[in-house]
Amino acid sequence: MAVDYPPLPVTKRKPGAAVFAVLYMLESTTRALALTVMPLQARMIFGDDAKVSAVYFGVTVFGLIAGFGIPMLIHRYRRRWVYAMGLALGGLALVALAFETPLGQLSGQVLRTLSGTACVIALTLYVLDFIPRVDLVRYEPLKLLLGCLPWGLGPWVGILLYQSHGPFAVAALGMGAALLALALFAYLRLTENPAVAAATRPPPNPLQSIGRFFAQPRLRLAWLIAFGRSGWWSLFFVYPALYFDAQGVDPSWTGALSGGANLLLVLSPAIGWAGRRYGIRRPIMLAFFCAGLITLAVPLAFESPLMVAVLLLIAAFFVVMLDALGNIPFLRAVRPLERPQMTSVYRTYIDLGSLLPFAVFTALLHFFDQRAVYICYGLLMLVVGVAARHLPRRL
């Protein structure tokens, strides 16, 4: 049986869930501001939906490969420097995007992907060091509650700034948030749990980590659940923007839809309370089934942008349920001495949640219109909902 080491980081300041949630909020601001601006810029630069999908596909492949190097960077330069690098790259990504050229778009997307990868892995390891496992059901909803501010307002603010003051105004605000996060992180002076850090050196070969991860059924299922919800958000933040643009709808609709969906994260504490009281297995199954069925209904309303927006917003509510509870199967299943390498493999759900859907969507869009995207992913959500039946009942 694996030993769960107590958190023993060497730091004079021992932050709790609220501090890590604030760091997540600030880091998310830089990414959220570009959320709806980026696909509109990509469509303007590259011309059509299929080319945009191909660009997203290529960038995600690069991010996936680069992500496996994060544990090695943590081993070589320490976690605090990798996390700081991730924060800085998030701000620089917006600067690159602001040039609105093919090179700027590709560079910005690559930097944004690398930023998210480094920050997700490093922050997850800090959380596992500082927050007891029994309190993870409290931390995840609190993180999402604070995250609803950037993810709820950021896409809308990003569009408004882009329309009224241009792309460099978006870049300035995003860089400011990144610098604020860097200042808070520097003040905290966090480092690794020495017991766990010593036991996990040197970092293993990435292929060995993948094999070890997928040899564990609970980690496999945790990854599939995370992949399912991540891929739905990838669809949501790209294809509705392209749909509304093709329908001649004002770009503010895109920002309002993305912002409204993310504001639903304010419900995360209530969802977390229900998860603590009744368990997370049934809510996760229910969320996948409902989100899948509603996504399948979107093509039926494709002649009405308003109805498409309403259906997507309702589906987003159920995916928010998955956001509040979906990481908990992994956080409770991962063994302490395997945290860095298993976290590196687990977070591939973010890249593959874009990579695999965009690969399929790019192929579909060569033969069908955008309705095929929603049919394909709605069916996948139903499949993952069935697989979630195998979650332990005690979760």
Task: Explain what you see.
- The model is unreliable at 1-12 (pLDDT under 50).
- The chain has 395 residues and is an all-alpha fold.
- It has one domain (17-390): Growth Hormone, Chain: A (Up-down Bundle).
- It has helices spanning 17-33, 37-46, 49-67, 70-77, 79-97, 102-130, 136-165, 167-188, 194-199, 206-214, 217-246, 252-263, 268-278, 281-297, 305-325, 328-333, 339-346, 348-364, 371-387.
- The two termini are 18 Å apart.
- 78% of the residues lie in helices and 0% in strands.
- α1 (17-33) packs parallel to α7 (136-165), α11 runs antiparallel to α19 and α18 crosses α19 (371-387).
- The chain is built from 19 helices and no strands.
Structural topology:
Elements: H1 17-33, H2 37-46, H3 49-67, H4 70-77, H5 79-97, H6 102-130, H7 136-165, H8 167-188, H9 194-199, H10 206-214, H11 217-246, H12 252-263, H13 268-278, H14 281-297, H15 305-325, H16 328-333, H17 339-346, H18 348-364, H19 371-387
Helix pairs in contact: 1-6, 1-7, 1-8, 2-3, 3-6, 3-18, 4-5, 5-6, 5-8, 6-17, 7-8, 7-12, 7-13, 10-17, 11-15, 11-18, 11-19, 12-15, 13-15, 14-15, 14-19, 18-19
